[in-house]
Design goal:
Layout lengths: L27 E5 L3 E3 L9 E6 L6 E7 L5 E3 L8 E2 L4 E8 L9 E9 L4 E9 L24 E8 L4 E9 L2 E5 L6
Parallel strand pairs: 2-9
Antiparallel strand pairs: 1-3, 3-7, 4-6, 4-8, 5-7, 8-9, 10-11, 11-12
Length: about 180
């Protein structure tokens, strides 16, 4: 078998890089099956960390998987074998408690250490649940369906280097109308 990049160097099972073009032949990647969770949600049924052999030769021994947060725990004891073969994956179950984080935003970097040198990171974002609904202070005072309810106004402005575009969306008396008064093209 020859190097997949340069096609000039004959690869042996002990090579970790191509001596001709310096391409890495033994490497792996790490990722979660979801990349975003919300604080306070019920944890997903199956949150997994997937380790994938991305090289073309060799076996990689995973030495450690470390999480900086106590509420995110990779369960490596549930994995039978931590040796990564060419073209194979290892799925590590992860236990997560989304009720524990006290502040709003987290970017958790789980560090995977192996025998191929260096470490790899998998990133999981945990954010507050986005707020939905109108942004009017008087919106909750008038139930839907009242004839004389106030107008709820959403305005969104896009600015570019050449001009400014503005659209205005109004909702009143169960009808939605697009106002063209403030639209600039």
């Amino acid at each position: 078998m020859y190097c997949p990049s340069c096609k000039r160097w004959e690869i042996t099972q002990f090579d970790s890089f191509c001596s001709w073009c310096r391409t890495k032949l033994v490497d792996f990647g790490a990722s979660f099956n979801v990349d975003h969770l919300c604080v306070g949600d019920i944890a997903p049924d199956t949150l997994t960390l997937t380790l994938t052999h991305t090289g073309c030769v060799g076996t990689i021994r995973v030495e450690r998987i470390d999480s900086p947060e106590t509420w995110l725990k990779p369960r490596i004891e549930q994995v039978a074998d931590l040796f990564l073969q060419v073209g194979k994956d290892i799925e590590v179950p992860v236990e997560v408690d989304l009720l524990t984080p006290t502040d709003d935003y987290h970017e958790v970097r789980v560090v995977i250490t192996s025998d191929v040198g260096g470490s790899r990171e998998a990133v999981l974002e945990v954010t507050p649940r986005p707020a939905t609904g109108p942004r009017s202070s008087r919106a909750n005072l008038f139930p839907a369906g009242l004839i004389n309810a106030p107008t709820i106004d959403w305005s969104l402005t896009f600015t570019s280097t050449s001009s400014t575009y503005s659209t205005r969306y109004e909702e009143a008396d169960r009808s939605r109308q697009l106002s063209t008064r403030e639209r600039c093209w």
